[in-house]
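@channel sequence for tomorrow's demo:
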Amino acid sequence: MAPLLEIQDLRVAYGKAAILKGVSLALEKGEVVGVIGPNGAGKTTLLRAIAGLTPSEGDIRYAGERINSLPAHRIVRRRVILCPERRRLFPEMSVRRNLEMGAYLRRDKAEIRRDLEEVLELFPALGRRLHNQAGTMSGGEQQMLAVARSLMSRPELLMLDEPSFGLAPLVKKAIMQTLLHIRRRGLTILLSEQDTKLAFEAVEKAYVLENGRINIAGSTESLLADPHVKEAYLGLA
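structure tokens (generated this afternoon):
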């Protein structure tokens, strides 16, 4: 069977600046895959291209269908969901309203209510702040809300862009533990993360993106043994 997501020779440029220079990768259904690399390597651009938010050249296939030319809302309808970097919440809206916005394109009201109950069980802190404005919450709570909002779209493929950004170490751990819980549901996850040690706790395999190209790819075990990865990303000689 074909991978759930398959990318071949993906190229993205902003003006004359080439950001992605022929990226290829694949995700099987149910896999949790990481994209690691330094700031500015193109990780966010990669996820935005998959989500239809950034024009690209090359081939992005989801469930066998080429989706490069589709508008973002049609990609969302295919249950490809991006939880963006820096959360991008609606700060003046309540927590409940932000969660409801995640289900904006859905019409199955009974199932939406059920999913709302599930995400509040997954993130109890949100239940206690349901009527508070999202902008009044801590960074960790806002990240929980961003992930929960994404889950309200009922993703088949969930893309998470730097979910640990700006969070304290204990909060980072809590977020990753939640992702491990979500992973056990069989959801396919593509995780972009600068904190390599943290990412390797959650993913099965990873792609190392440097200067717009995939330089190394493999299982977490093989990458942990790679001298370049150990030195550049794990601080180990």
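heads up for whoever presents: The first helix runs from residue 43 to 50.
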